[in-house]
């Protein structure tokens, strides 16, 4: 029996996340082909490499073409086993590490499972604290800890504040609060009082009215809240406020969460710490 | 003036996240060297490539060694400009895409900014919904939507439930609720009633008592809640419950959020959709 989808295998001595990211990035350039993916994580011994080899063989037998394997295996021995499997093997580490060793003038450490591993404790606690901070300071629920914030995101309801805050916390350990601009806030036309001492931390979000309506309707169909008129009005006021207060702002309409986060760093000039 | 840190530049026609991941992964193998990183995102035109070129030159002048550039530029023209800059240039796409083209027997689409771009709307809405679901169903706050859950995480307070749920939502669009095992729950020794219809969705978290005490103490020092005795007792009961009810469970002690998420997929056999 043959599958029409091309089989893709991500293999790693750790979580497999880097292999997945790498492979996924490359395969977005071949969107016209159908793929089926399998991740084989924690291949951190010869035995596990042999099991992975067997799995590659099994996956290959189901399909009419050789599986494509994206590897972030660090060790030469495990990688050597996979390399001999009936597959096309793209080895991230084995392609680039020799170049880096030459350029840096030192040997690599050959540490397995390092990229998305536990790391140091302070780092881990900071990241968890950032997530807890984002939740505690979501949607204006808590305005007493704004002095701890790296950023405070502003925007009308459903403009993308919460997912962006959580993404920044999880990926970069950034302390990000968010404050909803209510109808009353925007109608008054002045910066809400709790935000006034923190102007330099503010980033505004904006979105196209039709898009906002679409998002709001998915949850609260046919209410005033999701009428196009209401969306237009709230957004017009919000944008006016950003301009008046010189708050940098981002249009989230056609942006992914990752793109909004990237823009926040670019707009504010704040350096991100890559986890 | 010369810097002692080696300069690293991530360059991309999109967010730069893949370039950062790739570079960060590789550089974890050289932890004994100090790096300073700069990301240059959205290099999606010849003009921007020329600006990026100038930036590479400027960064190079501050240092005594050539910067190392990790590129995920897709287009040959922009990549060609960067390649000529005074740097060591590692091009992810230009290394692997020709191999993939040959293997897949088709040309790549040369789509820029694709990896972490907006993608399709359904996909975006699903991801946002998953984040909203995780927040609404955090910490047993809402037990009425468990039928929608992909997973329900169980664990005592501070065992890692919330960050894991949010990570699964953001990265994989997974609907993940979490339910705190209280002292009363675990003392009774029966599976809490709201969970009983959803046994096949349950995943337990466990953690070493000393680690739990450390995490709890960071927030509530000197309370009974964070005594070692209390932590030991809660965890003993929780583990007993998992064993008795045949709930698969994970020790989060020395695991990053990414590793916990990877284990959840491995334990349950549920396939992850890579975003």
Write the layout of secondary structure elements.
The structure is a homodimer of 275-residue chains.
Chain A: E1 6-11, H1 17-27, E2 35-40, H2 46-62, E3 68-71, H3 76-83, E4 88-91, H4 92-104, H5 121-136, E5 151-155, H6 161-172, E6 176-180, H7 183-188, E7 202-206, H8 209-217, H9 228-244, E8 249-251, H10 257-268
Cα radius of gyration of chain A in angstroms? 24 Å
3D shape of chain A: elongated
Bin the helical content of chain A: 40-55%
Largest sheet of chain A: 4 strands, parallel
Going across the biggest sheet of chain A, name each strand in turn: 2-1-3-4
What pair of chains forms the biggest interface?
A-B, 78 and 78 residues
Structural class of chain A: alpha/beta
Oligomer: homodimer
Strand content of chain A: 5-15%
* Terminal-residue CA separation of chain A: 43 Å
Q: Give the strand tally of chain A.
A: 8
N to C succession of SSEs of chain A: EHEHEHEHHEHEHEHHEH
Query: Could you report the average pLDDT of chain A, rounded to the nearest whole number?
Result: 91
Residue stretches of chain A low in confidence (pLDDT < 50, at least 5 long) are: none
Q: How many DSSP helices of chain A? A: 10
Word description of this protein:
2 copies of one chain form a homodimer. The first copy, chain A, is an alpha/beta fold. Helices cover 44% and strands 14% of the residues of chain A. The first copy, chain A, is built from 10 helices and 8 strands. The first copy, chain A, has helices spanning 17-27, 46-62, 76-83, 92-104, 121-136, 161-172, 183-188, 209-217, 228-244, 257-268, and strands at residues 6-11, 35-40, 68-71, 88-91, 151-155, 176-180, 202-206, 249-251. In chain A, the strands form 2 sheets. Chain A has a 4-stranded parallel beta sheet with strand order 2-1-3-4. In chain A, α5 (121-136) runs antiparallel to α6 (161-172) and α8 (209-217) packs across α9. Chain A is elongated, with a radius of gyration of 24 Å. The two termini of chain A are 43 Å apart. The model of chain A has no long low-confidence stretch (mean pLDDT 91). The interface between A and B is large, with 78 and 78 residues.
